[in-house]
Amino acid sequence: MKRASALTAVLASAALLAAGCGSSHQATTLPGLTAAKRARIQAVARQTARADGDAHPSSITVFASGRHEANVAAGAGTGVIGSQPVYLVVIRGHFVCSGCSGPAGSTPPTGDVITLVLDRTTLRNLDFGIGGNAHTSMLGPGLPLRLP
């Protein structure tokens, strides 16, 4: 029976993907995301991208998640313990974090992706990352934000 259940699950997942219901599907809204919060997230994302060297990022996408899952998706290893409701903001472009600290003489971190983990209620920035990728498929559909 377990083998049949696993096969059924695989076939159901394949059917959802074929129907366009997979992780590449875009959300039209997210839990707790008001128009005011959406505008604030857009402003923070644009300001962050500009401060890190790319005034015209190629995309900004927001995901609703728990803090642990958001940090794992952002590439922070095992993430941060806890289920605090957050938004993961993924900004794609070409970035150099000249404001990041490191050992004397080290070069600043660079990457094609900046991730911000924001508290879902206050939008306070909890976590920041810069690197080469974010693995958001486990978070479900993301909400793309308008670019300038």
Structure description:
With 148 residues, the protein is α+β, with helices and mostly antiparallel strands. It has one domain. It contains 3 helices and 5 strands, in the order ααβαββββ. It has a 5-stranded antiparallel beta sheet. The longest helix is centred in the N-terminal third of the chain and has 17 residues. The protein is globular. The termini are far apart. The N terminus is likely disordered.
Q: What's the domain count?
A: 1
Shape estimate: globular
Q: Cα-atom Rg, whole angstroms?
A: 17 Å
Could you give the distance between the termini?
Answer: 53 Å
Mean pLDDT: 84
Q: Report low-confidence residues grouped into runs of 5 or more.
A: 1-23
Main sheet? 5 strands, antiparallel
Strand content: 25-35%
Helix content: 25-40%
- Secondary-structure-derived class: alpha+beta
- Tell me the strand order in the biggest sheet: 4-3-2-1-5
The run of helices and strands is HHEHEEEE
Number of strands: 5
Number of helices: 3
Task: Break the fold down into its secondary structure elements and pairings.
Blueprint (H helix, E strand, L loop, with lengths): L1 H17 L16 H17 L7 E8 H7 L11 E12 L13 E10 L5 E7 L11 E2 L4
Antiparallel strand pairs: 1-2, 1-5, 2-3, 3-4
